[in-house]
Specification:
Shape: elongated
Number of domains: 2
Number of strands: 12
Strand content: 15-25%
Number of helices: 8
Distance between the termini: 32 Å
Structural class: alpha/beta
Strand order of the largest sheet: 2-1-3-4-5
CATH superfamily of the largest domain: Response regulator
CATH architecture of the largest domain: 3-Layer(aba) Sandwich
Radius of gyration: 20 Å
CATH topology of the largest domain: Rossmann fold
Helix content: 25-40%
């Protein structure tokens, strides 16, 4: 079972986050200050850390805020040092968010936040990091070649010019051939900066098919899963 460490000094934040994350199928550990967070992290080696930047100093302890916790995690030898981190920040803490991202945080969620959004971000970050760790540098499916390192796609040896969004959608599906993706999951694969609606995915898929499918009326690479979304053909 995937383990999530939630670090926050507000018991209500931990309670709500635990409830929603456990309902989504995750095991949840909790800590309320930087010192205990690092102790729990080192002992349990969670798969992802949800980390509040504003952490209190425990009585008689050393001041360890969220940025210090993130820095310490990233200085840990691999693979623990590569554990994904989602920061929780107040909306006014732009500088801290930038520093946190520069330290290697994978995403951030501004407070106050929707617990459903937190679960969605956790899923997206885990999917992204797990795909990165297990994905080959190149995927071949019949005449289609996807070079993930160089962000290049070729069909029958001819380069295909895809937009960043089209490439991201193709990559998400091609790295898990046969898996049916909902539109919402495909939106998640585009990252937090994507502000399009679920239905805009259909337009991007239509444009992608126009570039890689020999016949868009009978696609062979990107297939429609009726009532669900789309998948990359695993029978090529």
């Amino acid at each position: 079972m995937t383990t999530i460490l939630v670090v926050d000094d507000e018991p209500e934040v931990i309670r709500i986050s635990r409830g929603y994350l456990e309902q989504a199928g995750y095991k949840v550990l909790a800590a309320s200050d930087g010192t205990s967070a690092l102790a729990v992290f080192r002992q349990n080696k969670p798969d992802l850390v949800v980390l509040d930047l504003n952490l209190p100093t425990p009585p008689g302890g050393q001041p360890i805020d969220g940025l210090a916790v993130a820095r310490s995690i990233r200085q840990t030898p691999a693979p623990s040092g590569q554990t994904p981190i989602i920061m929780l920040t107040a909306r006014v803490e732009e500088t801290d968010r930038i520093i946190g991202l520069e330290l290697g945080a994978d995403d951030y969620v501004p407070k106050p936040f929707s617990p459903r959004e937190l679960v969605s971000r956790v899923r997206a970050v885990l999917r992204r990091t797990q795909a990165t760790s297990s994905t080959p540098s190149q995927i071949k499916a019949g005449p289609l070649t996807i070079d993930l390192t160089r962000h290049l796609v070729s069909l029958d040896g001819n380069e295909v010019n895809l937009t960043p969004t089209e490439f991201a959608l193709l990559q998400a599906m091609a790295t898990a051939p046969g898996r049916a993706f909902t539109r919402n999951q495909l939106v998640d694969s585009l990252g937090p900066d994507y502000d399009g609606l679920e239905r805009t995915v259909d337009s991007h898929i239509k444009n992608l098919r126009a570039k890689i499918e020999p016949d868009t009326t009978a696609p062979i690479f990107v297939l429609t899963v009726f009532g669900v979304g789309y998948k990359f053909n695993d029978a090529i």
